What we know:
Strand content of chain B: 15-25%
Oligomer: heterodimer
Low-confidence stretches of chain B: 1-5
Shape of chain B: elongated
Largest sheet of chain A: none
Number of helices of chain A: 5
Helix content of chain B: 25-40%
Amino acid sequence: MIKTLNAILVCTSLVGLVGVYALKFQVEDTAGAKAALERRIERQQASLSLLEAEWAYLNQPTHVAPIVARHNEVLALQPTKPTQFAAMDSLPMRPVVQLDTTALDSLFESLEAGVDPIEQLIEASEDDGTSL
Amino acid sequence: MALLSEGGATPIALDGARKSRGNLTKARIRWVILALIIVFGTVAGRLIQLGSVVTETTIEGQERDLITASRPALLDRNGLEMAVDIRVPSLYAEPRRIIDVEEAVQKLRTVLPDLDEDWLRKRLTGDKGFVWVKRELTPAIEDAIFALGLPGFDFVQESKRFYPGAREASHVLGATNIDNQGIAGIEKHMDDENVALLQSLGLARGNELAPVNLSIDLRVQHVLYEQLSDALVRYQAVASAGAVMDVRTGEIIGLVSLPDYDPNNPSTAFEDYNGVKNQRFNRITSGIYELGSTFKTVTLAGALDSGKVRITDTFDARYGIRFGRFTIDDFHGKHRVLTVPEVYKYSSNIGTIKIMQALGKDDFRAFLSKLGFDKRASIELPEMRDPTVPAKFSEIVAATSSFGHGLSISPLHMLRAMAAFVNGGNMVPPTLIKRSEAEARQLYEPVISPTTSGYIRYLMRLNALEGSGTRMNKAAAGYRAGGKTGTAEKVVNGAYSASKSFNVFTSAFPLDNPRYAMIILVDEPKSENAQSGHTAGWNAGEVTGRVVAQIAPMLGISPDFNEMLDANLVPVEIR
């Protein structure tokens, strides 16, 4: 009875021992991987901050203005003169188109009656042997 | 039995074998318990000892967190970066872990040849736990040093401030030192406020700090910088400065002071400029000047607002005014009776003194206090100087003060007053942080009535159309700008000099619905060519005009040549 109990206890402690050590090494590995990842993140953050700074630098008027000046022979940009501005309100309205309703009515009526004025014109020109 | 009865002695008791073994076991148990207590006591003691070990977190007296702490990014009002943090590697050494100092020195110098050999050897010898070798390196150098495989060397990722616009906004931004702490400008202001506290609590790591939106508009700042740099060359001036303020919100949307420095290299702030020391300060906030005739706007605003002077009044400017042995006369003398608008238009000293006298010197002094001219103008910059305004005015001091001599204020004071004069009479504290109009309204402090504000707008526009501001108006045609010139003679060896002047132009636009106020200073300008003059209209005025013409379209102000706009500015009394 005691012997079997002892055997079981020895087995459990052996299993426990192996288990705990395995866990320990696993944790060490994970910690190592974590540190490596953190380091990678840190480096990436660092290069990201550099890229962001570069982007900010490239967007600065101080950076853009000399480029424009350098290429102005091609671009031919000039400051806008006050006289060159106009507001939407100052544009004239589109002229109102007066529809010739009677002519349209007669056209629709003749179409409904089966007479196409354009077709007649084409036919007439074909008869003449001339093209439109 | 005889033995038992003898002497009544204690009977000899012999323990049984079992009992004696039991005692022995007890003794053994005691020893084991003692041994266990000692063993576990040692373990517990060691645990306590380990637990109480304080790992060194400071780096040469600096908290490690503080070094890696970041600062909030500074953006302009449209979200463009003006100051960002970059993470840079810094090399440190642990001398107690260095095996071969000589080898380390030689190898390090292959990558960092500018390090002094003796200095490096001295630094790496010893039993210290931490010494900086070189801070703020590039990732390429970091890799090269790693490749050397030296024991006892490592890197910390430090935050370093980077200003992509370099000099453009130097006086607004200020600068930071190598530990990323603000030492000037808005950087220092933020540290004084709360960033330093956050950093000391270790809360300012990574991207946790929300970026701060400044009131500056980088486009306006750029135009201002370009034009003022141009003015330095064009008029061979010793200095120039300017600021633009939103009159409704008090936001400063551009602030430039030249000569300046590079905030990426703060030591440039102490460099001599053309052989003169201490020239690179912020002239807008920490310079105080006699602002000359621009002060007439203030005098007229005070007088018209009191009701003691009406816009229709006339003043006799035929003769100079005598104070003891001094006589004050006009520069562009008309020597006739002038109306109030004419006094302003011709910049008549005599007329202005008479107007001030009609107001009364004590009321005039009280009006200056109301405008906050005897205290510092508050703004988020530590660079400030107290204005010098006499506490009590004598007759002559009041007279000279009315046209801007004998008292010194910062250009920022004047800008704030100008904004209040044109926006309907509400003074609003200037700020460098983005602010909405609703927030600004809470801070409004009425200094003149809306009617008086209307008069001032008319006078400023009139001066641009017919007075000393015509050159400005020509450059800024269509934008309804107006303003006042000021040509103050500089004090050289205790006397006013006729050849050296300090020129100012205060302005606002568009005057039919004022949005922005501006002040431009040009110090000791010379004539651009033989035909041009050296008074403020020729330099500070022209600069203002060119700036307005460029920034107005950016700020959404469209040009309008309708003459009715100007006609509407004329007060009903004199139409």
